[in-house]
Amino acid sequence: MTRIPRADAVHNRQHIVTIARAAFADQGIELPVREIAERAGLGAATVYRHFPTRADLVAAALAEHVAECRTEMRAALADPDAWRALSGTIRRFAVHQLGDGRLNEALFGSHAMSAQFAEDYRAQAKGLDQLVERARQAGAIRSGLTARDVRAGLTAIASLRVLRPGTAAHSASRLVNLLLAGMSA
User: Rounded to an integer, what distance in angstroms lies between the CA atom of residue 21 and that of residue 131?
Assistant: First the structure.
């Protein structure tokens, strides 16, 4: 017999994941569970009831982040305007790099959690390849531009995470605009 979770339990679980995601993005995934519980306005026991281990909580926060990126990529691939799809993806990438920096470090670094999302990473890479190819076929980007070139630009954007938040946001905006101007046909 399967128990249907109470509405407040479902709400608490989502609230915990939302708070954890923001906290991990800001301060890293090593943040203690008691800190997450405090930020969520809940007791640590409530957090542990939903997530028996800290790794479970980290995995849930990362899964939500990955799901959002997956949804954004699907929307970009469905966009009939090839340039808007590619340029929007690059702009969203910059936003995620600056706003979710520590989550991205866990996903793309050497952290043990990253292996759980390897297939998602490959799917995102394939999606970017498709966006670049569509933009090339539509004549929206320079003819010699490759997905590898775009990835080099994305790496430059990601490197801005080490700057102070205000400086990083300004620099990222300028870098994205320069990248897009250099890519466009």
Answer: 28
